Backbone:
């Protein structure tokens, strides 16, 4: 038994030290490994398979709205990055610079893309001539580089994977509609696929994207009560269009600037899955995103017929589920611990006695609930368990968020909550950036978003006491 | 009519100037565009959709053999690149160097990966401890950078997309088997999906990959008689394992070096598709890789019922084919030219009279063959046409290759063929690199491969006249 316990004992308790628990899970569930390249990660097969499932689901949803995939160069010449003033100020301090090609110094240095607005704009300036060329609804899947000082697996690394959508429209109204459409696709995806509830809203001026007119965000609450920005959608208005001269001839033969948007989601979503659903035994994966949904663990697998039966069940399930048999020479207890650590939603235990009685044991990862199921009904039973688990994981995450969402009417209340009760704080704001800065300085909490669903908590700004304009979600964030 | 012809007239004749024809097709079929980043390309929606189809097919074939996808950092510290002597000599002259992160100079400069052997080896050195950890069968889809001086769309650019597989095995035998397995997967993929026949063989010592023990290749013949290396698979033996100290404990508890392979295919395959199948009207796409397989062109689309019927047919076909309706306000003739330029395999022409007679016209892109088909049988007819087209495109490409493959017994014959008859030359070789060098110098032809299917053309080396050891395919190459 000592050996069996090792895998589980090796992770820190999440109540004791959430940050270490997180790092332990990331390593022990074999999602990621550190590399010799400081601040950059190796995404291992299980981590990457989660990303592939995320990609597949998002890509399908994008394409259903007319989005097409393209690929832009990974380098941005310095002069191109500098074309939009706010944008370059936001990104120049954190880019990696290429100065030599082979043995020759470059005439102009180039950065590795931290994001590709400037490349898309440069491309659109040639590509868009007439109203017939609009809208352009392009997206790319790629990696980007931001030279962060402090890094954490999935959450903040110098290179990460993402998708970045970049659209161009004839009118401001269309651009605004697309900005909101993509935010809603992100939010629905998080809830339906990742079982992760999110608050939809708008970022304050201080927190918006460099170069955007408005940034919209979805904010999720992690198990430790910290917020995670999980996807953003930006409306650029015609700011980039003017900087890059992206004009089209309208139906009246007049020159008009296009209106643009961009929107992105990243591998940090995998960090969110871990921190929303994980428990003391490790990862818990929502069935819809789990690379393996069902693991069959044979008991006394050397007995005649056990492995054969396990294979038979696997072959029966394979067309409807992502299923594997663990036939390694480890003990069943060890395999159970591994399956739990890796967050595989359903385990099937199958031994000689089960086979005799034409049954198996189903164990659900999140609740540990066990069911004895006839082998004739195993397929239906698994479907039921996976469906229930997907729904209940979302409900549980919602309940956790509700239980950790507070309201503050006064600044004392606000400070007390931020100091003692991890979670979201709903509080009113006068829309003056000075208050936002003071709150951050006093408490380290930041404005997460101005939610679309506005409520009135009080009449005055929680910080300065002047008349309030907006309800804001505040919180400490990753 | 003048307007309709413009699109077609704009491309150069392939017989007149094949290189310009190629560039014209790439642009007019909207596969690629130039960018402000010298030597880097923008892959446009149609080009990228072809790549997505290639990815989907290859990825499935890889995974069926147990391969798992991962993601490694895009940067390689200089000291890591230098660990394997031949490898660094091969790549250092053509890498892009990152020297600054944000405003700070890096302590050690890093290159953007030209290929990732060194990163995988560094990872495997930690990851592999015991024989239980083997084999490792990892692959990644990413972009790589090689600082080429001369670039051409898809064929040679400073950044390109590819997959790179990297495996580690317990024995030399297993590594050799994997090397050959992947080469055969590549070859089958080219023939079955891209309708492109390839010669399977081994590269000479001179032409092998930097750091490999042996490189295997598939070589295809383009329409102009030049060869294109279309995929390579390398056996590294234990050379990298020794340089990176990748050892495992075997069943007898002894330390052993692993044996490794790597293998890759790139977006240059899209260039191959263009140059193998294209014609004077533009691109011709094999049905299995075409983003759109069927284009419905309504005739007199403003007449009542025409567009509705086109949509109805589209909806009927959509579950089995990739199908679109062109309902833009261009003329039918213009739409025909565009469909031909873009290489869409089947066009459906549908006008009011057709609808009256419950029929439509199917036009096959490669042969221009027209068939009048009852609307009740349109689905079967399309399946037939696409299947036939896929098979006949391969046959035609094979016939073209046979017609442009020559044999040379003497050096005079050899030089005459290379100078006057574009294609492959089969000729014997003594295996002395001096002859290979002389041939290249005298004729610009290079050794393409030593095919698995060996034949005896003569007894003596075509260059020096000494006893021959091997039959080699020679040719001018992209």
Residues:
């Amino acid at each position: 038994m000592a050996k069996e316990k090792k895998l589980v004992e090796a992770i820190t308790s999440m109540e004791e030290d959430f940050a270490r628990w997180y790092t332990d899970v990331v390593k022990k569930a074999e999602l990621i490994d550190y590399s010799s390249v400081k601040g950059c990660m190796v995404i291992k097969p299980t981590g990457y398979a989660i990303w592939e499932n995320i990609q597949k689901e998002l890509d399908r949803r994008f394409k259903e709205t007319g989005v097409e995939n393209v690929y832009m160069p990974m380098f941005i010449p310095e002069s191109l990055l500098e074309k939009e003033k706010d944008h370059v100020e936001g990104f120049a301090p954190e880019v990696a610079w290429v100065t030599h090609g082979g043995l020759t110094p470059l005439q102009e240095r180039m950065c590795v893309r931290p994001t590709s607005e400037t490349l898309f704009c440069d491309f659109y300036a040639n590509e868009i001539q007439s109203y017939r060329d609009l809208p352009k609804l392009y997206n790319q899947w790629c990696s980007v580089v931001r030279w962060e000082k402090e890094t954490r697996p999935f959450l903040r690394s110098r290179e990460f994977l993402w998708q970045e959508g970049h659209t161009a429209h004839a009118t401001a109204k269309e651009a605004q509609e697309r900005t909101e459409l993509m935010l809603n696709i992100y939010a629905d995806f998080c809830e339906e696929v990742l079982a992760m509830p999110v608050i939809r809203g708008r970022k304050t001026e201080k927190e918006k994207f460099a170069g955007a007119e408005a940034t919209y965000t979805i904010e999720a609450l992690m198990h430790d009560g910290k917020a995670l920005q999980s996807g953003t959608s930006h409306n650029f208005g015609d700011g980039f269009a003017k900087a890059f001269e992206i004009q089209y001839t309208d139906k009246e033969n007049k020159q008009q600037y296009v209106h643009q948007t961009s929107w992105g989601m990243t591998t940090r979503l995998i960090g969110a899955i871990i921190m929303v659903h994980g428990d003391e035994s490790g990862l818990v994966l929502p069935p819809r995103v789990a690379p393996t949904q069902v693991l069959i663990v044979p008991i006394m697998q050397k007995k005649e017929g056990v492995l054969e039966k396990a294979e038979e069940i696997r072959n029966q399930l394979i067309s409807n589920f992502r299923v594997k048999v663990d036939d390694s020479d480890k003990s069943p207890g060890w395999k159970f611990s591994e399956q739990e650590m890796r967050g595989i939603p359903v385990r099937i235990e199958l031994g000689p006695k089960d086979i005799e009685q034409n049954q198996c044991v189903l164990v659900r990862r999140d609740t540990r609930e066990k069911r004895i199921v006839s082998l004739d009904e195993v397929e239906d039973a698994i479907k039921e368990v996976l469906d229930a688990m997907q729904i209940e994981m979302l409900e549980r995450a919602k309940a956790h968020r509700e239980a950790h969402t507070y309201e503050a009417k006064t600044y004392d209340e606000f400070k007390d909550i931020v100091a003692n009760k991890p979670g979201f704080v709903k509080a009113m704001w006068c829309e003056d950036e000075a208050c936002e800065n003071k709150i951050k300085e006093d408490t380290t909490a930041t404005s997460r978003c101005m939610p679309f669903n506005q409520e009135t908590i009080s009449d005055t700004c929680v910080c300065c006491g002047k008349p309030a304009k907006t309800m804001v979600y505040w919180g400490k964030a990753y």
Remarks:
- Confidence is low (pLDDT under 50) at residues 1-5 of chain A.
- The first helix of chain A runs from residue 2 to 9.
